[in-house]
Amino acid sequence: MEIVLASASGRRKKLLGKIVKRFSVKPADVSERIGKRESFPAAAVRLAVKKAQTVAKKEKGAIVIGADTVAYLGKKNFRKTGEERAARGVLSFLSGKTHYVVTGVAVIFPSGKTVKYAVKASVRIKNMTEGQLSSYVKSGEWKGRAGCYDVSGKGAKLVECIKGEKETVVGLPLKRLAKLLG
After folding, report:
1. Where are the domains of the chain?
2. What is the CA 52 to chain-centroid distance, rounded?
3. Catalytic residue among 49, 50, 67, 68
4. Rounded to an integer, what distance in angstroms lies between the CA atom of residue 98 and that of residue 121?
5. What's the start-to-end Cα distance of the chain, in Å?
6. 128 DSSP 8-state letter
């Protein structure tokens, strides 16, 4: 049976490759806005479902996997940005703090059955010096990443500890997904 990942994320593709040998990638072009009264876990799941549904309409007979990741602390969320100044602000704010990362996952089976869930992890960022912050921002690795860092790359040096599944922070928690895909 064909498996399709509804994501443009290279990190998700790499993670899914750890548990599935053959699959295709079909990015879903959907708005990733979060409602003002929506909880971050609910938003991550809703967006994952939206991505999976968008691709499933075109990929009849396939298992379609959608995912969305939100980094947050309190009522602030830290979505992807392409602006250096915004990334610097987010990383400066997170320096020395623990924040949360939630990844929503949706799996749509050919029968139409949809399994959706969220997996949460906490991440403590080290107290960063101005030099560390500047060096990381200059690397550009933060582009397209929730929280403006990549824990699977150079950004791992910014992290003091992760409580929960590291793959959640990268963008696709694998434990439950592996069981679902059997």
Report:
1. 3-181
2. 14
3. 68
4. 10
5. 12
6. P
| CATH entry, 3-181, from 3.30.420.10, 3.90.950.10, 3.30.2130.30, 3.90.180.10 | 3.90.950.10
In sequence order, the 6+-apart residues with CB closer than 8 A to the CB of 88 are 133, 137
pLDDT digits (tens, 9 = 90+) for 52-91: 999 999 999 999 999 999 999 999 999 888 899 999 999 9
Decide if 101 contacts 147 (C-beta within 8 A). yes
**Can you tell me the distance from the alpha carbon of 105 to that of 117, in angstroms, rounded to the nearest whole number?**
5
* Residue position matching structure tokens 């072009």: 29
pLDDT tens-digit map of 113-128: 999 999 999 999 999 9
Q: Among this protein's residues, is 29 annotated catalytic? A: no
